[in-house]
Amino acid sequence: MRIKLSSVMVEDQDKALKFYTDILGFVKKTDIPVGEF
Question: Longest Cα pair distance anywhere in the chain, in angstroms?
């Protein structure tokens, strides 16, 4: 099975990006800012 699209809401985007790309090996294709929540 291959996951083609996923959205993940996080508090610290820089920390989350480092985790998902460096640790889990995911590849970031798109980064869409959602503003403050």
Answer: 34
35: left (phi over 0), alpha (psi -120 to 50) or beta: left
Dist. CA 31–CA 12, nearest whole Å: 14
The per-residue pLDDT of the chain, averaged, comes to 85
Contacts of 30 (CB under 8 A, 6+ apart): none
pLDDT digits (tens, 9 = 90+) for 7-21: 778 889 899 999 999
- Angle subtended at Cα 18 by Cα 33 and Cα 36, rounded to the nearest 5 degrees: 25
Q: Which helix (H) or strand (E) holds 17?
A: helix 13-18
